[in-house]
Specification:
Elements lengths: L2 H20 L60 H12 L8 E7 L5 E5 L4 E2 L5 H13 L6 E6 L4 E5 L3 E4 L15 H14 L4 E7 L28 E3 L14 H15 L3 E2 L4 E2 L7 E7 L3 H11 L2 H14 L6 H14 L21 E2 H12 L4 H8 L26 E8 L2 E9 L5 E8 L7 H18 L4
Parallel strand pairs: 5-7, 6-8, 7-9, 7-10
Antiparallel strand pairs: 1-2, 1-15, 3-12, 4-5, 4-11, 13-14, 14-15
Length: 480
Amino acid sequence: MTVIACVATLGVAVATYGVLDAHDKVPGILTIDRDPSPLASPAPGVPSTTATDGSQASRVVVPTPIPPVARSAASSGAPQPAAAALRSALAPALADPRLGRSVGLTVRDGMTGAHLLDVAADQPRTPASTTKLLTAAAVVPSLGPETRLRTTTVLAPDGRVVLRAGGDMMLARGPSRPGEVEGHAGVGTLAAQTAAALRSAGRTTVTLGLDTTYADGEDYAPTWDRAYYPEAIVGKVAMLGLADGLVAPGGPGPADPAGEVAEVLRSELGRTGISVRGDLVRAAAPGGSRPLAAVSSAPVADVMAVALARSDNAVTESLARQAAVRAGAGGGFAEVARWVQAELARRGHDVTGVRLVDTSGLSKGTEVPARLVGDVIVAGTSGRDPGMARVVEDLPVAGLSGTLAGRYVSGPAASGAGLVRAKTGTLTGISSLGGTVVDADGRLLAFAVLADGIPSSSGTEGARAALDALVARLASCGCR
């Protein structure tokens, strides 16, 4: 194993130790026990989580950095589950009528990649947002996990200040917030730097331009239901946007993300004493323009982690388009989807049966076998792909964060709290999960389960409960 692969594998081992510590199975300072004090507040950056039924979920306080003791731990010494025992343990959960009759499952050893259980794993199914795991597996290694997206200003020969998009959809309105991913780069900071450069050039009055030619393309896929935008299911895909413009339940994104950033820049420049006159000019920065200022996003791996945690369709599509365009492919939704599939194949994944219509999983017609979802997860857990290792480590944690914050908090699934990290997927009649789980013996397992025939009688909530109970069974089963 290469040094890079060893480092990636160690990262997964550290994450694994953290969840074992949280469950008080190994020495450490983490816990998922309920806080006995009703007045206690969560640690900074760790919000209190409320279950969907209104009850208070268990909380975990994770110190940063992880204590050195975790670095000496590894899960590879734990016994591996037996295939027959796994099949027997999961059979009742797989037969749950709430999942319907179209279910694909793969369970893999997280360290070696060995197939432990496959149930119709090669049959293509609609994965919904679990598609984003495939996109991450292509995009993060291609762009580079540590790559940062630059938003810049330049001074055109005619005296116009041109704001140039560089792919960052998570800008803060005010100053940069270096300790955060959302808002890591701030328009206020860009304005202050731009103003200083303008004053050095003897300018205090300018006009404003906006250059969105970087990885330009449609802002809405033709395969998406037009109702998805007002319903805040997806925002406009752009190469420039504000963190507070990301869609949220009940909060559709802006109609013009890049234009909104430009108007914030105009206002912030005014605060610094730079007068901005006239209307916004939308055009590429002309030749001979001189650099003024620049701000950079958090690393791409961290940006993708936010996209997965929020299941943000627009940010996922934006990152995929940038990677595809940089690789020489087109920027259309279908072209980017073809690039992702080709990139997965180039990286050694078997894409038999795969059909990607977009890269977020929102379009009808996308089909993926559960086996491939398991493959890309194992690429991260085994250390084969350090970029994907970053993605897996940052997946939502059951009962604690992201789209899993309100799940695994009660009932049969509660045993998976803190032990399951996964990407969710939900469309009408479709429910899926793909990620990792630490079993009762401390073995790290990778799994993917896709159910695309959910009966209307059980609906989304019933299907989620059934999926969570199935994966929690993995967590509580040594299965030997």
